Amino acid sequence: MDRKSGKQDQRPALAGEPERSDAERREASPQGRDTYLETIRNVVDGTCARFESEYFVLACGCRSWYCPDCCLSLALQLRERLLGVLETFEACQMWTLTIDPELFPSPQEAYLYVRKRRSISELVRGLRTRGYLITNRYFYVIEWQKKTEMPHWHMLFDARRIPFETVCEIWNRNRPKSMPPADGKRPGFGSVRFSAPKFKTALYAARYATKYLTKQPEHGYPSWVRMFQGRIPRFGVSRGFWPTPAGREKIESQRFNPSETEKATVSHDPNCFCELCRGETELKKPRRKTRTIGERVENCRHDAVVMKNYVGLDMDGHFVPKRKCLGRAVDPFADLKEKLNPDRELSDRKLRIEPEEVSGILGEDVRRDRAEWPVDHTLNDEASRRTQNEC
């Protein structure tokens, strides 16, 4: 059979030659159909390097915007994502908003004051009400001044023209009522600066905005930021800023239905008909201790996981490279780096290991749950007696 045309080989037999069967024709034909192992380029003895698995130890990053090792990759990914949105802007302007350090006793109180009052959203709301914005989408990045450690914001608007006096008037509305009116040339709440009137391209605007995220400040982050328990986002966007993927369904919140065990744990009267007993209030679990930003950054690349690279089948039946996490390593990454040969260092956070070393790096509990690395366990007394009786 010809593989290209799909036709059977119809060559007639010579005189005195017996008629050949279909199996003999396929075996003798150089264009015969490949077997399954030949099609997938596999061999029985396992010498094909394409199907060999690779194992390595990977250090766990903190994925924090305040980490000098993790922020660069995060910022580059954000830049690519931001570029697609800024290309839909008809015009782009950048404004810088600051806070007067004399209004608050500490920079942390100033930041919490702006966040509680939603000053950024109120500014956009005021500009939108007066008709200066083309769309309601905006993007901002937060930074801190070197001397005063006060926060300030760089904002991108979809607008062609915004009067400077209007931005100052709306921003100065945030002045605390307990403070007297501003004296002299000092601003009411903070200074306003028109950073860039118009960007040539969307790529230039995306690079200009994300450059504050790709680089770490030379003087470092303020001490109150590192000791802050909670989240201080380095950037923020408006509602609906990122496009929703096509075909994505909105996840509706499900009503909480407590089980009988959870109902029994509640020390209420059996005839009680409160919201908790009716199942309308979820049982609150104990909240874990929140780490500070500095603690999270210090823990970067401390732990490590064992990864496996292999070739597997996708949904369409094609062979594609895949990656699988086998579990968390018992020892920290620094200890593993000292124990293993320095030649195995593939990068500053990646170490190559042999397949026979995986069981020693993973913990006993992890190996017990992984079928790929079985662990021999002694039978319990009941299983041992059953085995002896059967014998």
Keywords, separated by commas or semicolons:
14 helices, five-stranded antiparallel beta sheet, 10 strands, disordered N terminus, 391 residues
Describe the structure.
With 391 residues, this protein is of the alpha+beta class. It has helices at residues 22-28, 36-39, 71-86, 107-117, 119-129, 164-171, 202-214, 223-226, 260-265, 293-298, 333-339, 358-361, 364-369, 381-390, and strands at residues 54-59, 93-97, 138-144, 151-157, 192-196, 235-237, 304-313, 319-328, 345-347, 350-353. Helix 3 packs antiparallel against helix 7 (202-214) and helix 5 crosses helix 6. The chain is extended and about 100 Å long.
Strand order of the biggest β-sheet = 8-7-1-10-9
Give the amount of beta strand, in percent: 15-25%
Q: If you compute it from the alpha carbons, what radius of gyration comes out, rounded to the nearest whole angstrom?
A: 33 Å
Count of DSSP helices? Answer: 14
Portion in helices: 25-40%
Average pLDDT reading? 78
Shape: extended
Order of helices and strands: HHEHEHHEEHEHHEHHEEHEEHHH
* Main beta sheet strand tally, sense and closure: 5 strands, antiparallel
Oligomer: single chain
Segments where pLDDT lies below 50 for 5+ residues? 1-9, 27-50, 367-391
Give the strand tally: 10
Q: In angstroms, what separates the terminal alpha carbons?
A: 57 Å
Structural class: alpha+beta
